[in-house]
Amino acid sequence: MAVVALKALKDIWKNVPPNWVGTDPCGNAWDGISCSNNRVVSITLVSVNLSGQLSSDIEGLSELQTLISDECSDRDLSYNKGLTGPLPSAIGNLKKLSSLILVGCGFSGPIPPSIGSLQELVYLSLNSNNFVGEIPPSIGNLSNLYWLDLADNKLSGIIPVSNGSTPGLDMLVNAKHFHFGRNQFSGEIPSQLFSSSLILIHLLLENNQLSGSIPSTLGLVQTLEIVRLDKNSLSGSVPRNLNNLTSVQALFLANNDFTGPLPNLTGMNLLSYMDMSNNSFDPTDIPLWFSSLESLTTLIMENTHIRGQLPVSLFSPFQLQTVILKNNRINGTLNIGSTYSSQLQLIDLQNNLIDGFTQRAGYNVQIILVNNPICDEGGTENYCNIPQNTTPSYSTPPRNCTPISCSSDKISSPTCKCAYPYTGTLVFRAPSFSNFGNSTVFASLQQKMMDTFQSHGQPVDSVFLSNPVKNIYNYLELNLQIFPSGHDFFNRTGITGIGFMLSNQTFKPPPGFGPFYFIGNNYPYFAGLTSGSHKSSSTSVIIGAAVGGSILVILLLLAGVYAFCQKRRAETAAKKSDPFASWDPNTESGGVPQLKGARCFPFEELKRCTNNFNEINAIGTGGYGKVYRGTLPNRQVVAIKRAQHGSTQGGLEFKTEIEFLSRVHHKNVVSLVGFCFDQGEQMLVYEYITNGSLKDSLMGISGISLDWMRRLRIALGAAKGLHYLHDLANPPIIHRDIKSNNILLDERLNAKVADFGLSKLMGEPEKGHVTTQVKGTMGYLDPEYYMTLQLTEKSDVYSFGVLLFELLTARSPIEKGKYIVAVVKDAMDKTKDMYNLQAILDPIVASNMAPRSVEKFVDLALRCVQELGVDRPTMSEVVKEVEIIMEMAGLNPNAESSSTSESYEGKSKEFDHPYTNESLDFAYSGVYSPARLEPK
Fold it and tell me: What CATH number does residue 652 fall under?
């Protein structure tokens, strides 16, 4: 059915790839078609000049998808403007669809309500088309939706919310992106749309016809980073609780009908870009809180009824670039002082009442005082004239080379090579800066883009950015040229991969650029040939292919005879030395690895997904070898732990290890995706955890700030993972190396237990395990385990107790010869508030408003590190204790974490990834005694 459906679409579409021939899209490797187990799972055709319509034949693909376990279908037909007509309602039958991306095409008509049936949908991007009608309320049923982009269409009506029997967008509690700008939505913004359970970071409602007031419930969504409500018909007072949104970096309220007092945004210390222009606020003196916004780059308050003299401090924020206060009642003398921001580019004060200007030598700021009293007497100073061009330009400079002249349509790249680039326009919807001539900012964008393409194995040599301009919608537009690597042209696979990374938001711009979309141009240079030159060379190509083919057949026959003889000899030897030699990965026959969900990867596949194990993709190293980030063909990002030659285990030991790891399946335990035992290589393939280790965050390496609430959720997640290993895994597992390096944090800062290099299976029914070697990490090691050589699950409990002290203090278990457990015991006094531990607690914990929860947390940690294992709680009891502590702190332990690290991405820096094994896995020969590490 899937093949029939795909062939039906082929008959409707024009300009399909030329290799769409034959009857087998998978076997013949049609461009843009990805298959798994000989079934079509992905259609990705970007910027290939497709034209036609989507017909109801697509429902044939859904039947095939239901036969594929754990596979998702992605559809990306972006940047094909010839694709027109409506979306068929049959699209709702593609039940495995996870990404529906139709950006920059010509689709029209209403969005079919059947889209609400796509329960696996994570990305829904329909922006930059011609859709009309209302947002289907059924979209509220998409509980997994992360990205919803309906911008740049002709949609109308109200924003739907649920009413008991009808779903609505307020139900999308996992969504982080609502992009609805440049439509025709009307009515009020429903207060029900917002709640404290939402984790939205981008709310874009600009350029619509919305009316009424801003609901006060908006102040509950404290994860918001970008808010655009400008160019609507909103009215009334701005809610007083707007300054609760302390993570907001860009706030656009301009061109509405707001009245009442100017909102006080004190405390919004991350706010970089603020525009409240053209509203009817009450007349007010220059607010002092303007100067308190320490991250401010751009202040635009044109026609907002502000008055009085500008304080010198207004120009002192370190990153300030632009101040536009036109058409107000500002008076007195302008004095920007001597300590103004070194980045300040423009001060526009046209149409005010300024009658003086204190000038100093060396000013390099563009100042405009046209239509102020100081210029009314025929002043000829520069500030009394409007400059012709205040927008600086930028283009990527050559990379230590001299540009060359190129023939035909080729262009000289930043590396001075002639090639046919893939071109398009990058559009940033809410940049939090205004200096578009800042070469450092755009150089960071260029570098981030190159790093992303290379880390995902895309054939890109360089990228060229040019002509930044702010359009009428306050969007930043940039021309983008992407140059091929290894050839002077891209093939369709290259264009599709690059286009998909931009349309699917795989590329994350640096901080400050905000949400973006890309509109790619059709790429006419496949195979490096125009249509005319292709015809002239076709005859020679056919002749060459015929001669080459004949020679190839003869060589293949000779090679086949030789290979058959060698194969018989090799099979017998291989079966004796390789436990995988007779293994069919599609079966679980005896004598081969008994795997539960893990996949065997060929070496060549892992080589491709890491770009030949390129050092750019290396994310850590350890005694075992190196760890690489890779992207599988299904676009899953993984961490590949590759053993260095000389340190590999024997085949039987490696087989045992992957069998062990494949048994572990829990949301708080890092999953083994698969392994490779091929061409002499031993590799483990794990799910990739984006935010590194708990230790990195506690030490300030990752740039992620962990408040007390987040730490409690991390403690609960780690405890649940360890409880699963002890009591629910079959057979039970002792981790033996619990520590902050081995607790990883995913995108939502959920904790996952990782690294099972030292783990042991517990025998049944007796759980004790006697060993002749003590292994673990100094500072976390159970002293009873060391003394008795008996490893039990209570050894993990001891290590977990030390981990709890790390969460409390943000200190390493051993610092300057002092053991954290002894330090806490020595300092604590239970008769005092927070047990008198404020001096050694992390300041974030010490300032907590629920001191009783901290005290109970200390009590639990002390119980976990009791000298005798019998006196320690089980991990099941630990989970219950942490849940009680969370309730004391006002948290719901059963709620999913709404924390996110996206606010801190810009602060992160490269650090060794925790998949490496730096666990000091050694056999102790000396005497280990925590008593020896007590404070002196």
Answer: 3.30.200.20
